[in-house]
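Incident review: delayed structure delivery

Summary: a single-chain prediction request sat in the queue longer than the usual turnaround. Root cause was a stuck worker, restarted by the on-call engineer. No data loss occurred. The affected request and its eventual output are reproduced below so the record is complete for anyone auditing the incident later.

Affected input:
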Amino acid sequence: MRRPYMWLSVFVLAALLFLAAAPTPASAAPAATASGPGCQQFYTIKWGDTLYRIAVRFHTTVPALASLNGIPNPDRIVAGRTICVVPGEEIPFGFLYQVRWGDTLYSIGLRYGWSYTYLAAVNHLPNPHRIIAGQILLIPYH
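Output delivered after worker restart:
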């Protein structure tokens, strides 16, 4: 009668040893990092960071950071990953503009010759009527 319980104990012990020896997701593969001569400054993402906060801190935009680092979904970033925050060269297709108090996307578009809907699309803004002072926008060259 004791024999079936002994096999069960051996099986549970073997399963626990197998799970303890298996690699964890954090140690299974190193996180992809941005590298190369085209980057002047790196930043390691911390728990709780968002790409928007990182972009504001380094005076850039979310689309620019996502494109520079090959991030397919800017809403899903992983703590511990090192990303490039300052590219080695100027942005070839536009420049960065910091929104000032009183600015609207429409007034910025008039100033630089673009429609507000185009600027909203380029900057992946969900609501083109809501921009805030200090926000960084990408203004494409003509």
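Verification: The two ends are 85 Å apart (CA to CA).
Action items: add queue-age alerting; document worker restart procedure.
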